[in-house]
């Protein structure tokens, strides 16, 4: 029995998309609660008093915060269907390493692309493409980062694809022409219903980025 599962999330959050994909892969039914990020709910503060951020997975009243940690929790609790992490300890450690690379490189550099200007933005664009090329090297000729099976790193990374339109528009550059293998992988992932139904609309993500730019005064 799944018990009560609630997801506190925001539509455009790539971190929330990770959990939506994982829960869909596992066939877990849950209650989705959209958070208004400019005016976060008291319930969010109660469930995540440390970071006060989405997403928060709540399972039988107990909150699990931080998306990569929540991903592992989902994989461990609902382990009987579509395992995300490898059973081999070394391969599992490598998967966690690459997921951390996504957060430390893809996320941070992507944020700089829409939030920075001039030389800082140009440097971020260059490093972003370099990071994607590193990921292309790790992918190699495999269909997924998990090998033949869609796995943990794929789930951690694919939500950022929904932000590519915003990155390209804000940064005035094209990602696909420079990283064709990465885009081919992303399109392969999008063929999975768990992904296509969980990822945000790129146009709506771009609208959200425009709101963020105005909020942070980087128009």
From TrEMBL:
Pfam family, any one: GST_N
Cellular location(s): Cytoplasm, Cytosol
Limits of the GST N-terminal domain: 3-82
GO function terms (MF aspect): glutathione transferase activity
Main location: cytoplasm
GO terms (BP aspect): glutathione metabolic process
EC number: 2.5.1.18
Reaction catalysed by this enzyme: RX + glutathione = an S-substituted glutathione + a halide anion + H(+)
Keyword Cytoplasm: yes
Alphabetical list of InterPro entries matching this protein: Glutathione-S-Trfase_C-like, Glutathione-S-Trfase_C_sf, Glutathione_S-Trfase, Glutathione_S-Trfase_N, GST_C_Tau, Omega/Tau-like, Thioredoxin-like_sf
Organism domain of life: Eukaryota
Any one annotated GO CC term: cytosol
Keywords, comma-separated and alphabetical: Cytoplasm, Transferase
Occurrences of domain GST C-terminal (ranges): 88-208
Function: Is involved in the conjugation of reduced glutathione to a wide number of exogenous and endogenous hydrophobic electrophiles.
Family from the record: Belongs to the GST superfamily.
Name used for this protein in its record: Glutathione S-transferase
């Amino acid at each position: 029995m799944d018990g009560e599962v609630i997801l506190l999330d925001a539509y455009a959050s790539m971190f929330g998309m990770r959990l939506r994909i994982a829960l869909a892969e596992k066939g877990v039914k849950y209650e989705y609660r959209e958070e208004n990020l400019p005016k976060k709910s008291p319930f969010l503060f109660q469930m995540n008093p440390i970071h006060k951020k989405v997403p928060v997975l709540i399972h039988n009243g107990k909150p699990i915060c931080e998306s990569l940690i929540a991903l592992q929790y989902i994989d461990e609790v609902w382990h009987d269907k579509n395992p995300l992490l490898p059973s081999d300890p070394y391969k599992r450690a490598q998967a966690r390493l690459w997921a951390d690379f996504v957060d430390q490189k893809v996320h941070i550099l992507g944020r700089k692309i829409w939030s920075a200007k001039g030389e800082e933005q140009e440097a971020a664009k260059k490093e972003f493409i370099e990071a994607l090329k590193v990921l292309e090297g790790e992918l190699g000729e495999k269909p997924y980062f998990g090998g033949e099976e869609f796995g943990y790193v794929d789930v951690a990374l694919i939500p950022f694809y929904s932000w590519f339109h915003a990155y390209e528009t804000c940064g005035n550059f094209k990602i696909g022409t420079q990283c064709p293998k990465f885009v081919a992988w992303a399109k392969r992932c999008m063929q999975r219903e768990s992904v296509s139904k969980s990822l945000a609309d790129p146009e709506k993500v771009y609208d959200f980025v425009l709101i963020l730019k105005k909020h942070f005064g980087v128009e």
